[in-house]
Amino acid sequence: MDGGPRVPEQRRAPSPAEAAALRFSVLGPVRAWRAEEPLNTGSPQQRALLAALLLREGRTATAAELIDALWGPEPPSQALAAVRTYASRLRKVLDPGVLVSESGGYAVRGLGEDALDLTTAQNLAAEAEKAKNGGDLHQAREVLGRALAQWDGEPLAGVPGPYAETQRVRLEELRLQLLESRLDMDLEQGCHAEAVSELTALTAAHPLRERLRELLMLALYRSGRQAEALAVYADTRRLLAEELGVDPRPGLRDLQQRILQADPALAEPSAPAAEPAAVQVRPAQLPATVPDFTGRAGFVTELSEVLASAEGRVMAVSALAGIGGVGKTTLAVHVAHQARSAFPDGQLYVDLQGAGPRAAEPETVLGSFLRALGTPDSSVPDSLEDRAALYRSVLDGRRVLVLLDNAKDAAQVRPLLPGTEGCAALVTSRVRMVDLAGAHLVDLDVMSPDEALQLFTKIVGAERVAAEREAALDVVAACGFLPLAIRIAASRLAARRTWTVSVLAAKLADERRRLDELQAGDLAVKATFELGYGALDPAQARAFRLLGLADGPDISLAAAAAALDLPVEPTEDLLESLVDTSLLESAAPGRYRFHDLVRLYARACAERDEQPPGEREAAMSRLLDFYLATAAAVYAIERPGDRLVEHLETTEYPGLAFQDRHRAQDWLYAEAMTLLACVRQSTAPGLLRRAVDLLWAAVDLTESGANSREYEATAAAMRDAAHAAADVRTEGRALVTLANGHHLIGRFELANEQASEAVRLADAADDPLPGCWASNMLGIIALYHNRLEDGEAHLTRAIDSFRACGDGPGEASALCNLSRIHLAMGRTASAVSLAQQGTGMYDAMGHALKGANGRYALGLALTQGGQYDQAAERLQEALEVFRDSRMRLWEGMSLFRLAELDLAAERPAQAATNAETALTLLRGIGGEWRRGNVLTVLGRALSLIGHPGRAQVCWREALTIFEGLGSAEAEEVKSLLRPSAVA
Fold it and tell me: Could you tell me the pTM of the whole model?
């Protein structure tokens, strides 16, 4: 029995190793560990004693103080004995010498520096403050995040007593202060979009905390949601008046005025003076300059002088124009490298692909530039105008050189110009940009004979040229003094030591009898490529010709092997040899691409040289087979048991095989643009059916939302091609893909028309599976239009048709869709049963992805049935699968349904968080109708957590969407906007 702390105890102090091994937590449940082993800290009162001693940081607490801490002014009669008992028990658990008795009380001593989570959090907070004061906001945010991670729920959870209650309030206030500091730094670093959902939840949990409301207003404003930002102020003012009878503090009122005035300073972070230099990104994107750059001295001087004048002008722009192969890019890159020191804040570069059929879109280029300049993905706006404005803002105050290579026209270039003093732009193009206001225009002609000979000599070697000077002059003259032609010819000669200059000259004379054509625009480039092509061996030449037939931005090694009908390894050897001749480029490991002009030349060679002529069609047929077989393998591995793959056109050339669905998905998304390009160019009678089936098998490209627009455009083109060919069967299948694309982006009227026609054509062609798909689609579209009896009829037909085809996954899909029809009819029990039946079928087939669709439908039915916990489990399961499968559309919709569930379960703060995240995920995909529904639910959640102003903004935006679409949901939103609904 402990007799009480009468004299200081003489106990052995813990060794450093022993002390370091002990860890304690108070920022959550009161717990203790020795190394990784949890220790028993006893009853709640015993944990209260331990917490009181830990929070005194080694100072002694008297017995009276501990009694008051545990029981307050009315302790039990045996309080002192209880304190001694608790202390004795704790001594047995802790290391010797840690809990000591002295001066009539107790103390915890000799702990390691980070033994207590609160101490760790305080040390990290101090470190973050130091980093912030030093201008390193990124480091400060990271360290502050680690400090906040020390909290594990409610501080001192389950610990009784007035002292614990007081400390809980203090520790929660500390957490909120740190959280506000971190959120403030989030906004300083441009993470406003991500901060909105977190701040919405925090303001709901702490409605009277004005700093959180101020940060929410700023985050919304910087996210382009000005009306919601102002609504937050109105909500705050009303709440403070009702609850406390006071007005918002001056800082909040000032922020409201600045938002009303659209203060430009609010549009971007206002970091302390010491911070900007610490986080600025300096891109260095210029391609390498050629080591043998030759001549052009006059142009180099002229362009350098223009760039040097950038400091005193709004902007310096030089536009180089000339025929292909004249050396525009080489000159521009050389001058840009020379001028780098004058632009210390970075150099940007882009190939605008103006000579090709699909020039780069300015908004895409601006997105790339903004990221290179340090703008987070989440802060890059959607529209061209907003991106251009942000681009100019980011460049303001910087000295950056922008090289815009291979531009199509002035319209493509204008949004990409910096527009601020100190910056400059170099533009290359085949056309003179006379309509580019303020540009310094430079017309670049061919090289002079002396310059051309110098370039040839640098590449070939002075010794060989000196021995055959006249032949060398003949060579550069035959090249028309075009730098690209000279470089190709000289490089080939340099690589063949057995050739003399005269041999090359003779070859050029043989092949260049039409010298007048050498000066006729792109024909000069074609003639130059003819030299390289003529030196290829037969296998290289065949690869060059056939690969040039394929559309798309590039081609993978496996696809190239299919087109060439060769194994992968010999194909790689061939392609790498073509890379060495500069007739092909290595876009990335295992991927190759043609320059746009070289591709055109390769196709001309194929038309001229390929024997027999049918080999061109055979190569494209093999490539189409490869894509179709591989896409079918992806479909099959993601949808086991689905009968679609059995109804596709047969292929003679095999595709790739995959061990797991993640690798299969990787392939599909990596090949999306080349696959769709292959479909678009395969409209010939022998290819059309396989091309449409390839589009059908690659349905994930539209269902994910990642390639919806490109997929839709391709489906429309194939529908037209099938119709022109009077191929009823193929037109019906193309209509299924087009209807599916329109359905997924919210164009329900179009989708309904196309699916109805697909059913008719499928029946006419005796092609049942497209009819099954189309009927299934018609049923869900009818649900969206509230035509429930029609929907039930369509889905009943789909179920019967899928069963007749033996297509289990299709039947399961239709059952789950019918569940949603029954749910809308109020037949909740039947809806749950149907969804369970469909999900069970998916699970029995090992169908993870479509099983997620089943769980999605089941979650909706359980929600309406009031089984909220089960509904949340099913929707969360669906969400995880969609997220893992990169199905962004359905990930967003699952979060939207979770938000609906949270509202039904009276969890409005969580509903707001889920709806905010759904809104972000569905940006640009899923169509406006779905966006309107998410906004409606977000408004409901915001209204319930004390943000009626923001709720009104969301509802007004939703109403605009629904009225524009003519949707019945408009009436529901109108009722929400009525004053009585808000009250």
Answer: 0.60
